[in-house]
Amino acid sequence: MTDKPLSSMTIGILGVGYFASYFIAGLRKGGFKGQILLSPRNAQTANKLAQTHNCSIAVTNQDVIDHTDLVVVSVKPEHLQELLTGLSFKDDQIVVSAVAGISVENHHKTGPLPQTLIRMIPVCCIEAGEGVVPIYPAHKIVEDLARFTGAPVTFNTEEEFDLSLAASCMNGWLYEFFGSMTQWLENKGLPSETARTLVLHNVRGATGYALLKENEDLTSITNDIATEGTFTLKGLEVLRKHQGIIAWDKALDEVHANLIRDN
């Protein structure tokens, strides 16, 4: 493992797609000023990131590995083997994988990776410097790097990490939920900007209040608010009747079952 301080390390990105875009934007927004070297394959995205976030573009993928201390691999699972074919990593290199659903063991079976392989979950909110960054196994340098983009959370086992991956999928589901609520308000006559503001800041306020009440069970917060005779309880009863809450559990079950099978 490299003994360089994070500030003097060069970060390489193999697979310049959505996660790389979130991650690099989050790093720069969070104040990371180190060098970032991008793989050249997705030229349009790489050029945009280079111009917007002060990155360099390598000639080849091997060039990324040869000139960096920490490499972030961010491709779809089905493309990992193709990406790694013919590449040669340095023994002391740190590799951070944002490839979903592939265990550490199966990463090593897929290609010639160095010993230090850390899994990280790509979540779009890191572009805004918000949310958590799940990491397995714990690694100080990777955690310090992730801290530029959000709050790193480490896990003791890969099974725990996979649960966090399932939970992270909620990030994508929530936007459709927000959009549905916003559309309802618009259909009732609110201007779209006002409807969007109401929905997003109500949600932000709810999460902020829950974080403030860190020692209180989350369900008990609902029970304290949705008391007999309130409009909140009337709406909650409708959601429960139509399994609006249970449906989220079922979605998590489905994702988790697929993760276990694919790993």
From TrEMBL:
The chain crosses the membrane at residues 6-25. Residues 164-254 form the Pyrroline-5-carboxylate reductase dimerisation domain. Coiled coil: none annotated. Pfam families: F420_oxidored, P5CR_dimer. The keyword NADP applies. The keyword Hydrolase does not apply. Residues 10-101 form the Pyrroline-5-carboxylate reductase catalytic N-terminal domain. Gene3D superfamilies: NAD(P)-binding Rossmann-like Domain, ProC C-terminal domain-like. Keywords: Membrane, NADP, Oxidoreductase, Transmembrane, Transmembrane helix. Belongs to the pyrroline-5-carboxylate reductase family. PANTHER family: PYRROLINE-5-CARBOXYLATE REDUCTASE, PYRROLINE-5-CARBOXYLATE REDUCTASE 3. This is NAD(P)-binding domain-containing protein.
